[in-house]
Design brief:
A 6-stranded mixed sheet has the order 2-10-9-4-5-6, with no helix packed on it. It has strands at residues 3-7, 10-13, 18-25, 34-39, 46-51, 58-60, 68-73, 78-83, 92-98, 110-115. It is globular and about 40 Å long. It contains no helices and 10 strands. 0% of the residues lie in helices and 49% in strands. By secondary structure, it is mainly beta. Strand 7 and strand 8 (78-83) form a beta hairpin. The mean pLDDT is 95.
Length: 116
């Protein structure tokens, strides 16, 4: 069984930065791609960024390109999302999961709020 716990969200002014973390328990994610997703009220959850097991393959949503950096430390079972130059439209609950996601693996997420 895999448990994913997101952390690092908060309130930040536009132009600021945050670093999100995703701690994974269990070995089910071993060798698999992982990703960050986000959701705002009334909208479907959307893809933000993904990373392969060794980090050699990384993809970003257009909205994240040039501002966000995804990384992972497999020894620590942790994935990260460095978010710079944040915009109010980045306000959302951020979740981590496998890529493609597994419906049963969603955690509580971490709230990111960017004020203008």
């Amino acid at each position: 069984q895999v448990q994913l716990v997101e952390s690092g969200g908060g309130l930040v002014q536009a132009g600021g930065s945050l670093r999100l973390s995703c701690a994974a328990s269990g070995r089910a994610f071993s060798g698999l791609d992982m990703a960050w997703y986000r959701q705002t009220p009334g909208k479907e959850r959307e893809f933000v960024a993904s990373i392969s097991w060794f980090g050699g393959r990384i993809n970003y949503a257009d909205s994240a390109k040039g501002r966000f950096t995804i990384s992972r430390d497999n020894a620590k079972n942790t994935m990260y999302l460095q978010m710079n130059s944040l915009k109010p439209e980045d306000t959302a609950i951020y979740y981590c999961n496998l890529d493609p996601f597994r419906p049963g693996y969603w955690g509580q997420g971490t709230q990111v709020t960017v004020s203008s």
